[in-house]
Design goal:
heterodimer; A: mainly alpha; B: mainly alpha; ABC transporter involved in vitamin B12 uptake, BtuC; two-stranded antiparallel sheet
């Protein structure tokens, strides 16, 4: 329902919200936009941002990965034991990235080869990967990382106040933006999300694309695992607990429709930044940490409720104005198009609630 | 025999019995009955919550907010008792049902009447309820001496050799299984899960059924909070943290398909017991505690894959049977 009328898309809306938040925060608290605080915020959001990109692509093709936090921690554990075993951080980083990709590959094979629901599979591998962290590390975290590596987590790039972890974040943002919005692959992803069968009939290698996305998600968990290890200067088996829901919440708030087929990388970037900046603002204002949890939940609920309410109102208005003339039907009747979709993931009359 | 094997719960029950038998043979200490009692106590809460979750998964929905609801209830009841020098069963139940129904109404209204995806809505309420809970509970710990003694009695008591808490889960699962099988309301849930469009066209009030199932699940989560409190005689800001995924896992292992339309609460309860038995069996067999979660996770993945392979083979056979005469 891209009617000719002016419509503020969700992704543009939240970029506007982000700008307003930064302006308001900067004016009301002069610590908020200080270099140190920005440095802290960038580090704070780094893992969520890195994983949010591939998660956005997965959700666009109507899959999901709940094992990302466990996978991140497992990569961190692999980095830890490789560092202990070989004394080479470069080898350790390589091993961490490989471990992340391998876990993603296992998820992808279970989903594409056996045709299992990714929600069920990744609840299982969530437990499996977290368990492997305990196998590798036992109850002794690795914490003796060399300082030239742990410095990367917060020491600014010379001449700026930005930490080095911003480099993979920016590179990933640009690459994912290019792939999703500028290539044939990106158009395939949207096509898959809008209808599996149509995508198969038009010759898209659906299973290979999905398998690739799961491996990519695993790889990015490896990158995020490295960022986590470096920032906290330790690998422990109980790290990053619950991050999977945080990542999903950020992606959905960023305007990626859980029903698939809709989403932008800039929306995701803005959503993660809003989450990081508002968290920091509330912390500086002396708010309780629990308020932040409530705010995260509210943002997520509002991000699905408001567009749905708006589209209901718009439909009602269009319906009323179309009755006398018999035209102007901007809204096609909802439903009927996606009977195979789970409403847990799609809602009922899923479809064009985000432009 | 083959007809019996096609009941989804039977293979899971067989797997459970086989596992118990093997563990009993390999570790005689497991045979004393204490092991079984511990398994049943541990699986009671997950199993009871899985009963309510089954209703939703049958309709292709999910409710991840149950852990927060149960945790909040266990804290509120414990805290009430600590502040008022005790709590009567009536007040405890009222808090449980009140909080549970409130969360269920929010979830249900957003999902059923606004048509929002339940996964997103319940992750949202998971955070909101957990945040409210942690705010109220920050720095407060409720301990056994602040609770009336009946909590500990229920938590550690047993009837006919089966722990009281597990009885709660069994009764819940039995009632709900019968309701799903023999009432109009229950059949509607399966119809909605099998084909939501068709269900709507034949006149099933889909939103009302969804709303009711969410409110019911909220109430079940509230009562789960009371079980949590009796089990540990302890409540703080971490009560119930992270159990939502175990509840879903129990359903999936117990034969309730994420794709909707199949499964029973009884199966989900067996799934919860199997999940817990795996953990105990690994301990009893001398598997290092560090390996236990990994093996349990691997078995969960295998169980999900196995169920799918069996389902694929049986549909294959079914289509062949249909095709041959034609």
């Amino acid at each position: 329902m891209r009617s000719g009328k002016f419509r503020l898309g969700w992704d543009k809306g939240i970029i506007l919200l982000l700008v307003m938040l930064i302006l308001f925060g900067g004016m009301s608290n002069n610590l908020f936009l200080a270099g140190d605080n920005i440095n802290f915020i960038i580090g704070d959001i780094s893992e969520v941002m890195l994983i949010a990109f591939p998660m956005a692509l997965l959700i666009i093709v109507k899959e999901i990965d709940l094992s990302v936090a466990s996978n991140l921690t497992l990569s961190s554990a692999v980095i830890g034991i490789t560092w202990h075993g070989t004394g080479s951080m470069w080898l350790a980083v390589l091993a961490g990235l490989l471990s992340g990709s391998a876990c993603g590959l296992l998820n992808g094979l279970l989903v594409t080869k056996l045709g299992l629901s990714s929600l069920a599979v990744t609840i299982g591998t969530l437990a499996l990967y977290r368990g492997l962290c305990y196998v590798l590390l036992g109850d002794t975290p690795v914490a003796d990382y060399p300082t030239e590596w742990t410095d990367l987590g917060y020491v600014p790039i010379p001449g700026t106040f930005l930490p080095w972890v911003i480099v993979p974040m920016v590179v990933a943002a640009l690459l994912f933006w290019y792939v999703l919005h500028g290539t044939r692959m990106g158009r395939w992803l949207f096509a898959i999300g809008q209808g599996d069968e149509a995508a198969i009939f038009s010759g898209i290698p659906l299973k290979r694309v999905k398998l690739g996305l799961f491996v990519l998600t695993g790889f990015m968990c490896g990158v995020a695992g490295l960022a986590y290890t470096v920032r906290f200067a330790s690998s422990s088996p109980d790290g990053a607990l619950g991050y999977e829901l945080l990542v999903i919440a950020a992606v959905l708030f960023g305007g990626v429709a859980i029903a698939g087929g809709v989403g932008t990388i800039w929306g995701v970037v803005a959503a993660v930044l809003i989450w990081g900046f508002s968290r920091s603002y509330l912390q500086l204002a002396g708010w309780d940490a629990n308020a932040l949890v409530i705010v995260s939940g509210l943002l997520l609920l509002l991000s699905v409720t408001i567009p749905r309410l708006l589209s209901k109102i718009r439909d009602a208005v269009a319906h009323r104005s179309s009755r006398p003339t018999g035209r102007g039907g901007a809204a096609p009747p909802p439903g009927d198009t996606a009977e195979h979709l789970s409403p847990a993931v799609a809602g009922h009359d899923q479809g064009s609630h985000r432009g | 025999m083959s007809k019996v094997m096609r009941i989804r719960e039977i293979p899971i029950l067989l797997a459970l019995l086989l596992l118990l038998l093997l563990t009993g043979i390999l570790n005689p200490a497991f045979r004393t009955g204490d092991g079984m009692t511990a398994i049943l106590v541990e699986s009671a809460l997950i199993g009871f919550l899985a009963v309510g979750q089954t209703n939703l998964i049958i309709m292709r929905h999910i409710d991840l907010s149950v852990s927060s609801t149960a945790g909040l209830v266990s804290f509120l009841v414990g805290n009430y008792s600590a502040n008022h020098g005790g709590v009567t069963g009536g007040v405890a139940l009222a808090i449980a049902l009140g909080v549970g129904a409130a969360v269920g109404i929010v979830n249900g209204a957003l999902v059923a009447f606004l048509g929002l995806p339940s996964l997103v809505v319940t992750i949202g309420t998971l955070y909101i309820v957990r945040g409210i809970f942690n705010y109220l509970a920050s720095g407060i710990t409720v301990t056994a001496d602040q609770l009336p003694p009946y909590f500990a009695w229920i938590g550690s008591g047993s009837f006919l050799g089966i722990p009281d808490l597990f009885w709660v889960a069994v009764i819940g699962a039995a009632i709900m299984t019968l309701v799903l099988r023999y009432t109009r309301w229950g059949r509607d849930l399966y119809a909605i899960g099998s084909n939501p469009q068709a269900a709507r066209r034949v006149g099933i009030p889909v939103p009302r059924r969804e709303f009711a199932a969410f409110v019911l699940n909220g109430c079940i989560a509230g009562i789960g909070g009371l079980m949590l409190l009796s089990r540990f005689s302890f409540a703080d800001a971490t009560s119930g943290l992270g159990i939502e995924l175990y509840v879903v896992a129990a359903c999936v292992i117990g034969g309730v398909a994420i794709a909707g339309g199949v499964g029973t609460p009884a199966g989900a309860l067996i799934g919860a017991v199997l999940l817990q038995t795996i953990a105990f069996a690994l301990g009893a067999l001398g598997v290092s505690q560090f390996w236990q979660q990994a093996v349990a996770g691997a078995l969960l993945v295998v169980a999900i894959a196995f169920d799918r392979i069996v389902a694929m083979r049986s549909t294959h056979r079914a289509t062949r049977l249909v095709e041959v005469p034609v």
